[in-house]
Amino acid sequence: MAQILAPSTQWQMRMTKNPANASPFTTKMWGSLFLKQKTKGTAKFSTKFRVCASKSESSTVNRLDDLLNMDIRPYTDKIIAEYVWIGGTGIDLRSKSRTISKPVEHPSELPKWNYDGSSTGQAPGEDSEVILYPQAIFKDPFRGGNNILVICDSYTPAGEPIPTNKRHRAAEIFGNKKVIDEVPWFGIEQEYTLLQPNVKWPLGWPVGAYPGPQGPYYCAAGADKSFGRDISDAHYKACLYAGINISGTNGEVMPGQWEYQVGPSVGIEAGDHIWCSRYILERITEQAGVVLTLDPKPIEGDWNGAGCHTNYSTKSMREDGGYELIKKAILNLSLRHKEHISAYGEGNERRLTGKHETANINTFSWGVANRGCSVRVGRDTEKQGKGYLEDRRPASNMDPYIVTSLLAETTILWEPTLEAEALAAQKLALRV
Ligand code: ADP
Ligand code: MN
Ligand code: MN
Ligand code: MN
């Protein structure tokens, strides 16, 4: 592979030359993700020059690049819609694409579609048709132009949600008048781990061995501390382009592990945005040749697990006097601890050990500014007497439709008996 080296100013000029609405991602840029490793032998360029493009020796690949990046809008009104849905494990993402006759702005303008449920573990072979209902659309950062990603949920031909369709029930809860009036906000911290493709060992770790102990890696910079930043950054921009409400990102305590935050988003939107952000992350890691895992405890031992802390507030919690409602919500959550834990992700028992900034899975606890609790309340919230709570229990592989709707159900719709409430208040030292 021959590489083209250019000063970094030229790199910026190339960026601004892109047509305003074209995809900001070119395969050349994807190529640059990995050039750091490939440029080992070019030390004399490394400080002043930045590698900005790679050309394949085969001109066929260059022509493919041109086609992949081609803006088709001057030639046709047609667009490509990538229909995305959740597969049979409840965590795998599947997608397929189809042509739509003109650009659309709302999922209701899109046709329903179908797929072979027997190939995703979602239907028997003899009656395998599953119907996709378009529910949310995002701009497609990979194809650019007017092309879109479509988040769908799945139904039987008779119109019944199939068992793995968790969005349907969540949409019912978020459609409840009491819940709508409380305008529930969710800020989700999605953690994930990057693995080397063949050995399935974290990115940046020596194969068959361990890096130095945790401590220097969280939010760190440096080739010996930060592994996979290009993926995190490419994903950040792709999400902004797509219209996902991504609010930040950071390197994690375990090397090779990252986090991004989505939100605050209202109601069902939180789930749609997290699922779309996960799909984009799968696609980016696919292009990068790195494996994504959402396993809650990818490496046993003294290594942090991966969670999906869910920050939550209602309108009443955000208004003056809201702290009282936050405490009442915590009380309700304590009484339904088991239900929540069983819905917070597979394998979470390997993560919620009471170590590594987690609370033990078997006991509910809460505290102000305490990261060893099930639920944390921030100092600011306590000081201002209003704000939000952080549910630290959900695992990185949780289903955001389930977690967000269960939080709303437990804190807005569900009521404990007075007796249970009094007992729990005493136990948690909570006066409400
Ligand atoms: P942490 O300190 O736990 O690492 P982060 O900064 O990673 O927290 O994430 C906090 C999340 O909480 C962000 O996604 C943010 O948008 C969200 N958030 C902020 N205010 C609220 C609120 N009132 N209700 C719900 N979520 C909120
Ligand atoms: Mn965070
Ligand atoms: Mn984190
Ligand atoms: Mn957190």
UniProtKB/TrEMBL annotation:
GO terms for cellular component: chloroplast. One of its GO terms (biological process) is glutamine biosynthetic process. It is found in: Cytoplasm; Plastid, Chloroplast. SUPFAM superfamilies: Glutamine synthetase, N-terminal domain (SSF54368), Glutamine synthetase/guanido kinase (SSF55931). Its main location: cytoplasm. SMART domains: Gln-synt_C. It catalyses: L-glutamate + NH4(+) + ATP = L-glutamine + ADP + phosphate + H(+). GO terms for molecular function: ATP binding; glutamine synthetase activity. Residues 79-159 form the GS beta-grasp domain. It comes from the Eukaryota. Keywords: ATP-binding, Chloroplast, Cytoplasm, Ligase, Nucleotide-binding, Plastid, Transit peptide. Residues 163-432 form the GS catalytic domain. PROSITE patterns: GLNA_1, GLNA_ATP, GS_BETA_GRASP, GS_CATALYTIC. Its EC number is 6.3.1.2. The keyword Ligase applies. PANTHER family: GLUTAMINE SYNTHETASE, GLUTAMINE SYNTHETASE, CHLOROPLASTIC_MITOCHONDRIAL. Homooctamer. Belongs to the glutamine synthetase family. This is Glutamine synthetase. It comes from Vitis vinifera (Grape). The lineage of its organism: Eukaryota, Viridiplantae, Streptophyta, Embryophyta, Tracheophyta.
